[in-house]
Amino acid sequence: MQKKKLIFLICIALCFPWFEAITITEAAGKTITVGADNLNVRSGPGLEYEVVATLNNGEVYSIVKEEDEWSQILLDNDKKGWVANYLIAKIDGDSSSTTDEKQENEKSANTGLINVNSLNFRTAPSLDAAIVGKLDQGTVVTILSERDNWVEIQYAEQIGWVSEEYIQTSDEEEQSNGTEQTLENSTLTILHNGTNIRKNPNTQSTILVRANKGDTFKVNRFENDWYEIQLSDGQMGYVASWVVSAEEEEKENEKEMNETTINQETNTDWEQYLKNKKIVIDPGHGGKDDGTTGTKGTLEKELTLETARHLFDKLKAAGADVTLTRQRDKYLNLPYRVNVANEQNADAFISLHYDSSKNESVRGLTTYYYYPWQKELAINIHSAIIDETEMKDRGTRFGDYYVIRENNKKAVLIELGYLSNPREELQVQSNQYQESAATGIYEGLARYFKEN
């Protein structure tokens, strides 16, 4: 009897490796594609386990086995590790044929571009829904459906919801890019000496002539970020949009009419609504934190400080009690900036920033608030800046930013233009724009205090 028991135990022991092999074999036909940079590989299926390796976006690995929302993969050094499923794309069977199908589906599907960093990716269309991951600015996702102000998307085979405010659809991108546009009664002015006028609309084309700063030309049309202009000898040439300043006669006439209306409104004396108001101006970034860098090397931290100084002077002249969180190129942490507003018992906190996108054609101005009771201030300031600057209106939006989220004062964060857009970068650097932006914020604050 004892001999039979011994034989039975030996048989079971010999079967254990076979059972494990079955588990591994069942997953061996699957691979994963990494869907994020610096993806952490952990020693076990959970965030509490130590990181044993990091992977790069696009890398492919074989799946050994799966557990809940985690997959164990085989690394290059024959070691094993665990990765979260929402950061990977799983492929069954032959990866080459599946990838072809996936690419074909992506071509036919409507896509979107995430336009903010660390966007929360949720399980349902609600701020109360669980967060399944974060998406970085510039991430391309597949759009599945829309509901209220939310968009259902798919990324790395994970389906979830994001706010429509933070995603640019392919239809919007096509509209903003506009391959060709006819411009009647338009002129442009050259901004730099030695500007190249080319035969065709690209930087490799033959140079027909070089123009100097202040030269003006009649514009025929706009094509792919280039203006077709008429030269003095009658022939046509092309000049890049980011080295000129274009004006349309019709817009100039409208601007004169708008200025008349604005001047009449200004006569109501905004100063009386700003006097003695405690306002904190927060120039974004500073010191070791450059913020975004423009296509021509413009540093966001320098531009926000310049805008802040223009605004400071205007508000101070109106009798407001104004505080700058920083007056020089100095690094400040986010809690400190918010604490300034609390210590000053501020009536308004204005955080100044400039935006960036991987798509150089993206442009415009956006104003953010976090709490509903901050929204009215944001709307007043935003509409006034748009009136003054005539920038593309990207709207007033909810934004999950620390300096407005952790602020118990009326606080807004303003993105005053895209430094990643070559033409807009030049525009926002100009003294005219800085003056207009500051005037817009000044008037927006006055409008708000007039009603509140």
Q: Outline of this structure?
A:
The chain has 452 residues and is an alpha+beta fold. Helices cover 33% and strands 34% of the residues.
How much helical structure, as a percent, in the residues?
25-40%
User: What CATH architecture label of the largest domain applies?
Assistant: 3-Layer(aba) Sandwich
In percent terms, what proportion of residues is strand?
25-35%
Radius of gyration: 28 Å
Salient structural properties:
SH3 type barrels, 4 domains, 6-stranded mixed sheet, 5-stranded antiparallel sheet, 34% strand
Question: Could you walk me through the main structural features you see in this protein, from its secondary elements to its overall organization?
Answer:
By secondary structure, the protein is of the alpha+beta class. The chain folds into 4 domains: 20-93, SH3 type barrels (Roll); 109-174, Roll (SH3 type barrels); 179-249, SH3 Domains (SH3 type barrels, Roll), CATH 2.30.30; 268-451, Zn-dependent exopeptidases (Aminopeptidase, 3-Layer(aba) Sandwich), CATH 3.40.630. 33% of the residues lie in helices and 34% in strands. Strands 23-22-24-27-25-26 form a 6-stranded mixed beta sheet, with helices on both faces. A 5-stranded antiparallel beta sheet has the order 6-5-4-1-7. A 5-stranded antiparallel beta sheet has the order 13-12-11-8-14. Strand 16 and strand 17 form a beta hairpin. 36% of the residues are buried. Residues 14-28, 93-109, 170-179, 248-257 and 259-268 have low confidence and may be disordered.
